[in-house]
Amino acid sequence: xxxxxxxxxxxxxxxxxxxxxxxxxxxxxxxxxxxxxxxxxxxxxxxxxxxxxxxxxxxxxxxxxxxxxxxxxxxxxxxxxxxxxxxxxxxxxxxxxxxxxxxxxxxxxxxxxxxxxxxxxxxxxxxxxxxxxxxxxxxxxxxxxxxxxxxxxxx
Length: 155
Description:
Layout: E1 4-6, H1 9-20, H2 24-40, E2 45-50, E3 55-60, E4 68-75, E5 78-83, E6 104-108, H3 117-129, E7 141-147
Parallel strand pairs: 2-7
Antiparallel strand pairs: 1-7, 2-3, 3-4, 4-5, 5-6
């Protein structure tokens, strides 16, 4: 298991390598969603978990995983926007899927989906309910939290 923070090219290169293991269509979706979330949350710490089931890219206010606001969950089947505390978010349009105690998600087709009014409202609500707010200034970084040796097929 790896746990390190890098602001230079090597963490970005490592993350690009994780993404490159997926089918080109999934790669396009995750890249466009990641760019949209980076633009929306420029001060967030991007926590990366390349685990058995998913490549997860979380956008967090601190290095603690519990301070994660949203994450991209990437599998061979596609990309989902996962709300760490989604069960407590207002969701009048029933946009969220899942029935776990804490987590809810929305499947994404592209980064443009993040601008849809219902998803935008969920993102705003998730930021408002965060226990630790995102930093108001500065630049976010990428933190490779965990890399599993054994993974489900990515293609």
